[in-house]
């Protein structure tokens, strides 16, 4: 008898509940039926998975099998969710994991156009940072990712390039010091506390490096960062496209030592397996 998926699901439930009775209640089965399936799994593996008959302590092998069972059942759950999404939207679903500045600068116009051309397609958009977008693509939890990178990065396809700069409060120390300055420097950040975010690491300047090492406030959401700066908590580093030029409360200053540009890049897993809906959104980007 080969190892079956249902065996792994039952084993995972027993390990989580700590007893046959608890697992039986969760699975809608009798404890004896659960025990029989566990015995079949242990017979197939050739070693016990629990230390005692009480099923409340795993053997080292049991822990390894549990880790693999978690991966298998989680992957199965994602597949079932994908099937249900496609059943609910026969034209397909596009899952997009985008960094916040992309959600502000790129997605609104693309989504508006796409919904006119393909109103029957379901769009699921998540606001994440670059590392989380990469993870979701790798784990097949997203179809398309939009990430930040410096110019020349090999990964992904560029869709937008803009300046990185200092975002500060109008009339604050950095704002006043930058007035009339022909070549502003990243050293202006020493005049106010830095509110860190992942984009700060793209700037290769000792002032930024030191500020990142010593700062005690970090935020990953663009709206939160802009709100903190407006409130006078400190300054941060963002792309030009993330800052509304009509916002009289904020200023965007572009240092030149060095000038640093950020690219938005679109990424995907196996492009050869794009559904028609995902392919259409990929081309729209």
Fold and architecture overview:
The chain folds into three domains: 5-87, Winged helix-like DNA-binding domain superfamily/Winged helix DNA-binding domain (Arc Repressor Mutant, subunit A, Orthogonal Bundle); 89-157 and 264-284, D-Maltodextrin-Binding Protein, domain 2 (3-Layer(aba) Sandwich), CATH 3.40.190.10; 163-260, D-Maltodextrin-Binding Protein, domain 2. With 285 residues, the protein is α/β, with parallel strands linked by helices. Helix 1 packs across helix 2 (20-27), helix 1 crosses helix 4 (60-88) and helix 2 crosses helix 3 (31-45). The protein is elongated and about 80 Å long. The longest helix has 29 residues, at 60-88. Strands 1, 2, 3, 4, 5, 6 and 7 form a seven-stranded mixed beta sheet that branches. The protein has helices at 5-17, 20-27, 31-45, 60-88, 100-105, 107-117, 130-138, 173-178, 206-214, 222-230, 276-284, and strands spanning 93-98, 122-127, 144-150, 157-169, 236-239, 250-253, 261-268.
- CA-CA gap between termini: 49 Å
Helix content: 40-55%
Query: What's the overall average pLDDT, rounded?
Result: 87
Q: Describe the biggest sheet? A: 7 strands, mixed
CATH superfamily of the largest domain: Periplasmic binding protein-like II
Specify the structural class.
Answer: alpha/beta
User: How many individual helices?
Assistant: 11
Q: Which shape, going by the Cα principal axes?
A: elongated
Indicate the proportion of strand residues: 15-25%
Question: Can you count the beta strands?
Answer: 7
Low-confidence stretches: none
